[in-house]
Amino acid sequence: MNSEFDSGTTELMRANERNWDARAPIHAASRFYGADGATPADWWFAPFEWNDLGPLANRDLAHLQCHLGTETIAFARRGARTVGLDFSARTIDHARRIADQHHVEVDYVRADVYDAVAALGARRFDIVYTGKGALCYLPDLERWAAILAELLKPGGLVYIVEFHPVLTSLGPKPDPNRQELLLRNDYLAGRGPLEHDGTHTYTDGPALPPDAAPVYEWAHGLGEVVTALVGAGLTITRLRESELIPWPRFDRMIRDEESGWWRLPPDDARIPLLYALSAIKDR
């Protein structure tokens, strides 16, 4: 665990690691992830992601906070020399097994994202990818952005596809007949992490053990993400916002016929639920 954080923040990050260790076997066996092949790896990608990433053959790609690697193996199948990194040792064990089952070559490394430069050694990458639901577990985006910049080759691309802070700010009104969405969580950082029940996970399957550690999430507004990347010397080249997400966060969501992903009903206000950000290292 990165030693530059104060002891209180370090303990919260360790609690998150223990929580994700407990989640790993439940997620690996879940219908939600379909790691046995029931859910194709491409399902987790919006169509515009492949356009933004461009050809991957013979490119070096690092997938940070990769979890089970359900997205990571899609990069390898497109010919990228792929590394997946995650802080959960149990998750990495499952990711390696899943890759072997699918006969896909991925180099998985167990390390906290803040220790990625040391863990990956001299390797530098054409693409550094961070996928959906990752940034909320990072207490400091300036340090994170500096690590991304250091991992990139000159001309390399950072590609971030993340749940929009508008989405994470919303919660349903406690009325099962209406499910009206209201602002319930912080959009902006500044008031510390939000603690969630350690026995809860978002997939199907059994609950976590009663003694599972709680999980902590930090709010990061879109301006904070952009400013951190620019401060690390990266140039923003594209920012997309989308009303689609790959699973129904709220009961009221409906399936989009074209993409198969999920959106709010047509009578609701159109709001961004996902964003995709591209940034390059000029030199």
UniProtKB/TrEMBL annotation:
Alphabetical list of CDD domains matching this protein: AdoMet_MTases (cd02440)
Residue span(s) of domain Methyltransferase type: 64-157
GO biological process: methylation
GO molecular function: methyltransferase activity
One Pfam family it belongs to: Methyltransf_12
UniProt keyword terms in alphabetical order: Methyltransferase, Transferase
Matching InterPro entries: Methyltransf_12, SAM-dependent_MTases_sf
SUPFAM superfamilies in alphabetical order: S-adenosyl-L-methionine-dependent methyltransferases
Top-rank taxon: Bacteria
Name under which the protein is recorded: Methyltransferase domain-containing protein
Species classification: Bacteria, Bacillati, Actinomycetota, Actinomycetes, Mycobacteriales
